[in-house]
Amino acid sequence: MNMSEKESGTSGYSWKLSAFASVASLIGALVTLGEVSPIITGLILLAAVGWGFTARDNKRASDKG
Q1: Is residue 63 helix, strand or coil?
Q2: Among 9, 13, 14, 61, which residue has the least CB neighbours within 10 Å?
């Protein structure tokens, strides 16, 4: 796989898979809310945001060409 400087390591993933990972992380954060340290919940939410941005970027790339 040939990547340009602006592509991430997840650029080959389907945007739908990335969107699913984002939603799954968000659900995981809600489930763990109050059960584990707030730091852990925050890290899970941070992962959800990251997967959301990945989904957005990969959708734009797939629409572009």
Answers
A1: helix
A2: 9
